[in-house]
Amino acid sequence: MAEVLVPDGVDAGAPWHHGAPLAEQRHLDSDGIVDLARRDVLVITGADRRRHLHTLSTGDLADLKPGQAASAFFLDPAGHILFSFSLVETGTAIWGWTEPGQGEALAEHIDRLTFRLDVTATPRPDVALLWKAGPPPGDGEDSAARPADAGDPVEETTADGGAGIPDAGITRTGPDSLGGHEWFIPRQHLAARMTEGFPVGLWGWEARRIAAGIARVGLDTDARTIPNELGVPSPAVSLTKGCYPGQEVVARVHHLGRPPRRLVRLLFDGSDDAIPQPCTPLLRGEPGGEAVVGRLGSAAHHARLGLIGLALVKRDLPDDALLSLGSKEESDGAAEQGSAGMVCAIEPLVAADAGLHFRPDPDLVSPAPRRAGSLSLGMTTAGVAKPGITIQRGR
């Protein structure tokens, strides 16, 4: 069977599978290689690149060492996720990738706020991204950003002043690399590099990502999504760093509240082989049941788990809830869906009571009579009562 391409959506034109989608997935643990060339690649140069990205994003990036990988979100002032960025510091530049079609906008977002800093963000359509199983060649200290083949010359700059890339490419291994590594290569070498492993389509890579519970921004999220709904702290979100746009919302929800929605994994009942489309409404109960409690993000057939998906659902939805896919009538204008009625269970990836929730509780004030000048405080942590604390002054 010939190669089948993704017909539409953000990944349109990427290899969906190479003839045996479920058999291909087994190679992701050994010699698999995946074409991610539709992802947008950026390079960030300048002496202030780490400091600038640190103050602009959710990631703890100020002290990145050569070879160190990281991830980050860029938020608006209301805490909504605008962009995701998976990156690696090479010692002379930061290379990273974001979702298809987002590279230009992300580069403008970074450059617009540089002020007097020595930072330049440059989209690099001449660089393609691959994913390859296992550790990168020469895995060890600082190997994540080394050229994939030792001895190949590394260009320092391109004609436009941006960072160059060696013919052998640059590799990245992070917590979100799904047990393998990403490989930045010159785009003209894409076809040749794809022969250096067993080709696996995007179907297999997406199934592995969904099983790992890693959301894709713009596919598993919407314009209202805040990082807390995907889980914090995380490799992309630090709760110990200084200010950045949207930090107040992230910190307030984590310490004083709960996110309105939470990320869950969906396990479908196997009654239908069709892969449901993103934005399909999720109803609580059997088909035709209660109101919409969320919407499907991405879905794929996993070789071991069957049909699985990711979704953002209402925070108070019980972990043992049974969900069913709705139809166009419930989807408020989403495209026509062909999988209405499919039933699925949920696996929580973010707990319903996520966060710390420090709040004063007046019912826990010490009942003992207080002397003049004394003060009693009672606190709860995540709903667990703490004894009253009494501070005595001037006996």
How would you characterize the overall build of this protein?
The protein contains six helices and 23 strands. With 395 residues, the protein is of the alpha+beta class. A hairpin with a 7-residue loop joins strand 10 and strand 11 (180-186). The longest helix is centred in the middle third of the chain and has 11 residues, at 202-212. The protein starts with a strand and ends with a strand. The model is unreliable at 140-144, 148-161, 332-337 and 364-395 (pLDDT under 50).
CATH class of the largest domain: Alpha Beta
Low-confidence stretches: 140-144, 148-161, 332-337, 364-395
CATH homologous superfamily of the largest domain?
Probable tRNA modification gtpase trme, domain 1
Q: Average pLDDT, to the nearest integer?
A: 85
Radius of gyration: 24 Å
- Terminal Cα separation, in Å? 88 Å
What are the secondary-structure elements, in order, as H or E?
Answer: EEHEEHEEEHEEEEHEHHEEEEEEEEEEE
Topology record:
Blueprint: E1 4-5, E2 15-17, H1 21-25, E3 32-35, E4 40-45, H2 49-56, E5 69-75, E6 81-89, E7 94-98, H3 103-112, E8 120-123, E9 127-133, E10 170-172, E11 180-186, H4 190-193, E12 198-200, H5 202-212, H6 247-256, E13 261-268, E14 281-284, E15 292-302, E16 306-314, E17 322-325, E18 343-348, E19 358-360, E20 375-377, E21 379-381, E22 384-385, E23 389-391
Parallel strand pairs: 3-12
Antiparallel strand pairs: 1-2, 3-9, 4-7, 4-8, 5-6, 6-7, 9-11, 10-11, 13-16, 13-18, 14-15, 14-17, 15-16, 17-18, 19-21, 20-23, 21-22
